[in-house]
Amino acid sequence: MTKRDARAPEPPTSRWVTAACWHNCGGQCLNKVLVADGRVLRQKTDDTHADSPLYPQQRGCARGLSQRQQVLGADRLTQPLIRKHWRPGGGDRQRRGQDEWLRISWDEALDIVASEIKRIKTLYGNTAILSWDFYSLYYTSKMGASWGGGNEISQMLSLYGGHVNVWGSTSQGTWKDTGVLIGLGVVNGTNDRLDLLNSQLIVMWGVNPAWSSSGSGTYHYLQAKRAGSRFIFIDPFYTDSARVLADEWVPVRPGTDHALVLGMAHTLLVEDDPATDPLIDWDFLNRCTVGFDAGHMPAGADPADNFRDYVLGTYDGQPKSAEWAAAICGVEPAKIRALAREIATTARVALVNSWAPARVNNADSWPQAIMTFGCMTGHLGQSGRMTGICTSRNAANSGPSLVLPGDDGVQYLANPLAGYNINQNEVWDAVLTGRYTAGHGDVRDIDIRMIYHGCHSYLNQKPGIDKAIAAHRQVEFVVAQNYVLNPSARYADIVLPVTTFWERPGVLFSGNREMLLWPEQVIEPVGEAKDDVWIARQLARRLGLDPSLIEQVPPPQRLYNQLAGAKVMKSDGSGYEPLLTITDADIAALGATGQPQAGRIPLAELRERGCYQVPRRPGDGYTYIHLEKFRADPAAHPLNTASGRLEIHCQALADHIRRRGWSEISPIAKYQPPSEGFEATFADWPAGVKGEFPLQLYSIHHPARSHSCMDNVAWLREAFPHELYMNPADAAPRGITAGDSVLVTSRHGAVSLPVCLTERIIPGVVMLGQGAWVDRDEASGVDRGGSANVLIGAVATGQGHAGFNSCNVQIVKNDGDRREMRRTPM
Amino acid sequence: MPQYGFHFDMTACTGCKTCQIAGKDKNDLGPGLFCRRVGCFEGGKYPRPWHYYLSLSCNHCAAPRCVAACAGGALSKDAATGAVLYDPSRCTGCQACVSSCPYGAVQFDTAERRIVKCDMCHDLISAGQEPACTSTCPMRALHFGPLDELRQRYGDARDARGLPDSSLTRPSLLLTIDRHARPESIG
Prior knowledge:
The complex is a heterodimer of chains A (826) and B (187).
Chain A: E1 15-19, E2 31-36, E3 39-44, H1 62-65, H2 67-71, E4 81-83, E5 101-103, H3 106-124, E6 129-130, H4 152-159, E7 165-167, H5 175-182, H6 193-196, E8 201-205, H7 209-212, H8 217-226, E9 230-235, H9 240-245, E10 248-251, H10 257-271, H11 282-288, E11 289-290, H12 307-312, H13 322-329, H14 333-345, E12 349-353, H15 366-377, E13 386-389, E14 403-404, E15 421-423, H16 427-433, E16 435-439, E17 442-445, E18 450-453, H17 458-461, H18 465-472, E19 477-482, H19 487-490, E20 494-497, E21 509-510, E22 515-517, H20 532-542, H21 555-565, E23 567-569, E24 576-578, E25 580-581, H22 584-590, E26 601-602, H23 603-609, E27 611-613, H24 628-632, E28 646-647, H25 651-660, E29 682-684, E30 689-690, E31 695-700, H26 714-719, E32 724-726, H27 728-731, E33 741-746, E34 750-757, E35 765-769, H28 788-791, E36 808-813
Parallel strand pairs in A: 6-18, 7-15, 8-9, 8-12, 9-10, 11-28, 12-13, 18-19, 19-20, 25-26, 31-35, 32-34
Antiparallel strand pairs in A: 1-2, 2-3, 4-5, 4-20, 14-23, 16-17, 21-22, 22-27, 23-24, 29-30, 31-36, 32-35, 33-34, 33-36
Chain B: E1 4-9, H1 18-27, E2 36-45, E3 48-57, H2 65-69, E4 75-77, E5 84-86, H3 96-100, E6 107-109, E7 114-116, H4 122-126, E8 142-146, H5 147-154, E9 173-176
Parallel strand pairs in B: 1-9
Antiparallel strand pairs in B: 1-8, 2-3, 4-5, 6-7
């Protein structure tokens, strides 16, 4: 990046441009860039209105303010690249990831990509081509979340006969399917931020908005604290969110939350006395749920298969007591009982969940377990009372969006090979072995010969990187699009440089429920970078396809469609009205066609501010209480479940898991030790004898990055060193001291990185920020980048989502690789 | 002389370092140079650990050691704001100021042979705007203004565990102190 003279006055031609901060960071904020004569001078965040807790500015974070280093870094790709030893068919494929790069022209690059696609289709058919449809939205960027980009390559390949696709949730864990089937939901599962102020107790279960939900989430929770709410954090780590908010920290081992909540449920069941010590909301259970006890089972279910008798151990002889739970989760029995009683005896409690505890192998019943506890205590569907998911852009503020962009009008092309869909945990095995699981008892053959990465970071961001690298070295051709040489690009034969959002025409972005953003083009494309649609169309033309079928709606018309359809909720909450007044002159200036319209604010105002934010006030029409109508009258407002109620017994869930083909679960929330969870750290669990991998490792959202995005940004690397977090009690017996480099080994791979010793993490558990770019030393096979997914295996269980928080490791001091820990000097 | 300064609410800071990056962006700083930086202090034992952050810039002290140490007069107090400002044309590069500052707030940029320090975003505040760091803080833990007004609003606490004794230089920095950083806990 060119240095500017920070002392020089800003040129008179400079102007502030609203810039996209497009990352899937769990936030979405207002980012502005000062530009003069095509050069970026500096950045700022929201100053469009005075700041207050009720009407807060949409302030960004360290990553957002570092974006000019991301967009204009010295490592931006400016020309297409080809691997030096590439030959048609691959050449020496083992050199992928360690070969030299040569610059080539766009024509040469596109000709090669088109001819390889054609050759592979001709020889092996379309089922030899592996690509992704919407996955490019997520990792390096969300390119397309707002304007149909991200799946252009999928569209091009679909026109050419289709491609094999990959499925499986990265973020949502088992909430993805379980949350829907039991009736609680996957997102927006709590009340809105102003109603949260009515909670007397807020239990943050695996929730760390300070690191995983940039924007205003933590600030909203701080308002609840200042209003008098007590906060309990249940987490393996004493987080930065806990630092500011927590009145109490309950450390818990990763993947054992389910055991903990069963111990809490047992406490309530054995201590409840409706007359003298009421702890259970029987009225709620009876009216709003099925499956809690033998008297309230859904039709056709075995009455013995009820939650109450499972917890009491009526049939299996094992009460799920606080003592039973303590041995698994690490929380003392007395604390388990106290926690259960405090939640049960406090009138208004928020049981706030993130998806993290569900990003665990075999955790398919966890969301049902926490929901069941929420139902037992009645903390659902009333003011100040909630149990559910509250995370990402909705952190501390659930509810329907108050302002939304219109549909951009782009029609996606269907993939003719939609039936060829491989689970994320098996995709690299499928490449290497030619087999994958398509369902229960349904293992199929597949013959993958090429991999086409859109602008994403799939290789780095899914479990099992070592297998991913092996798979990339087996196929005949790998192509990647990116703006930097990220890990997916590094293992490609050809890399096509793409533009970022700063170099593209404007689009509308949704953020949290109260605001809508209109970022515009900031600078001209860097070097020869092209946008993904141009690339897809160029390839389509070379393959004899009609390029105009890809992303048919031109950018100005897409933008107009979003603007004209933008809607804002009426102040009484009764519905939406048009946001924008648009004139004929506006439409002409946009270069679109359409009709003028009347709305709440002029188009020019949205463009000038870059943001529209709905003002809030206490008692306004925007208050949201999750499941409020259902709770008040379940018969009149049934849920979309088989019974219409919250399903403590959910046959649909058990059937769904069985159909997937990897494991089976009970219709009620029975605890299953996760594959590679705490119990698996023992060679002999009943005897308490530890095994080869005695420590648990889990991965977290790290403030230096948005997933793998921005791992290359110098300001962020300096601010947030990438280190393994470890308790001194685990370090001492291993001879590890502060500043050491450690070698971390799991069943799936090995990494080395500096260690950070901290009393803030539960002993027996180590923690790694996810998203660091793999940097494999070929001689040893060790990843010197410390990438979590080298250690975390691609283990397919249950519904097939990613189990990032189930991993067992051993750790030794790494004398061969001592690197100074970089600390911010004070 | 009017004196402007900062207030830092330690109880609200999550250590997100947005202020640190804002200082780097505003002043276009390379690695190792900061106009504001955030440090972490940790103590206690599991399961009762504690930690807190300190976000520090130049404190534009009432008795600035750097100004006293500068023989060439390159550092001086601004009459309008009380900011300690740097005039590169009078700087010999002797770095006496660097070693004099008890906060480590004055740094030497070896590549450009100049001093790097916070100037309260002099250009912005002269235009009636806020400094880059305080206007970006997601937790609203940093505030800027005339020191008298800040004192009325946030109190006059200036000493916290991890900071030099405020009587040394009389910093223009007020603190809302984290309970683990109370000066009486030093020892």
